[in-house]
């Protein structure tokens, strides 16, 4: 077992390995399918398959897309953390990526980087990271929308996830399923009223709903409100290589106060990446010194 190794954030040790794994498994259509785990309101695990949509620009943050009305969005709103499990059968490798999740909607980003609440997300202070600026995230969302296939874009015009297909049964099932996250209460009321009419009228409503399922918003048009981008800000990676019987753990760390770099010719900058001061009043009075916390990746080889 080796000692712990450190590297700068500009060199992400696991990223090139993942790119290589993707390249060696690219002939397998499902090699871009990953399992995303979140936590439900009752603290039970929630898992589903999503499609890898690439890194966010030049960062190590992983992206995928989702329907804003889906259950996972509501779960990430309560607890903005997720973990991806990714297996490559050709090379017999497994990656697990964990970290905080940002969900990018048509009208903003959540959880808010500028939220003044006591959410654990605020310790990340993402407003200090230019790669996570709202304008950058919004642009990434629209870019991914523009390159989706027609069937991929069509699914965001479908009825809300988890709504019963049989509108006639909507009233009896609504109490069990609850309102779909992000859905319009007025539209749900309209559906319930339609279901209460005679069977002919209900059949007409069902037909119209099915026709809406094949509506395709053009690629060059603004992405619809139902389309959201999810960014997993990776801070831990677990990489297992079965052929080599090896396992490496990677973790994003922040240097200690004693490691803060100093530049005698620079102005004072006393904020760390969390947006809070790491120094006392006397140290703040020191002039001509730049003190900034930096992030870096550590790696540790362990037994599989």
From TrEMBL:
Q: Where is the Pyridoxamine 5'-phosphate oxidase Alr4036 family FMN-binding domain?
A: 13-104
The signal peptide annotation in the UniProt record is: none
Identify this protein by name.
Answer: Pyridoxamine 5'-phosphate oxidase Alr4036 family FMN-binding domain-containing protein
A single GO molecular function, which one?
Answer: FMN binding
Supply the source organism for this entry. Polytomella parva
What Pfam families does the annotation carry? Pyridox_oxase_2 (PF12766)
> InterPro entries per the record?
Pyridox_Oxase_Alr4036_FMN-bd (IPR024624), Split_barrel_FMN-bd (IPR012349)
Entry-linked Gene3D superfamilies: Electron Transport, Fmn-binding Protein, Chain A
List the PANTHER family hit by this protein, alphabetically: AGL049CP, PYRIDOXAMINE 5'-PHOSPHATE OXIDASE ALR4036 FAMILY FMN-BINDING DOMAIN-CONTAINING PROTEIN
């Amino acid at each position: 077992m080796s000692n712990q190794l450190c590297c700068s954030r500009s060199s992400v040790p696991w990223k090139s390995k993942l790119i290589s794994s993707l390249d060696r498994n690219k002939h397998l259509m499902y090699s871009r399918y990953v399992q995303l785990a979140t936590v439900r309101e009752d603290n039970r695990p929630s898992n589903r398959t999503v499609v890898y949509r690439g890194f966010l620009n030049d960062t190590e943050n992983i992206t995928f897309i989702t329907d804003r009305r889906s259950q996972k969005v509501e779960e990430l709103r309560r607890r903005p953390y997720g973990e991806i499990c990714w297996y490559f059968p050709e090379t017999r490798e497994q990656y697990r990526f964990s970290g905080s999740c940002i969900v990018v909607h048509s009208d903003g980003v959540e959880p808010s980087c500028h939220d003044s609440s006591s959410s654990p997300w605020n310790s990340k202070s993402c407003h200090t990271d230019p790669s996570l600026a709202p304008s950058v995230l919004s642009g990434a969302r629209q870019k991914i929308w523009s390159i989706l296939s027609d069937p991929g874009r069509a699914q965001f015009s479908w009825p809300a996830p988890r709504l019963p297909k049989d509108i006639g049964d909507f009233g009896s099932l609504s109490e069990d399923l609850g309102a779909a996250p992000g859905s319009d209460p007025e539209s749900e009321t309209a559906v319930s009223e339609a279901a209460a009419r005679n069977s002919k009228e209900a059949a007409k409503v069902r037909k119209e709903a099915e026709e809406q399922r094949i509506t395709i918003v053009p690629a060059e048009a603004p992405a619809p409100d139902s389309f959201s981008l999810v960014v997993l800000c990776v801070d831990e990676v677990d990489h297992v290589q079965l052929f080599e019987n090896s396992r490496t753990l990677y973790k994003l760390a922040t240097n200690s106060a004693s490691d803060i770099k100093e530049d005698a010719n620079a102005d004072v900058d006393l904020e760390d990446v969390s947006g809070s001061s790491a120094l006392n009043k006397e140290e703040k009075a020191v002039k001509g010194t730049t003190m900034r916390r930096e992030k870096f990746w550590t790696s540790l080889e362990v037994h599989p």
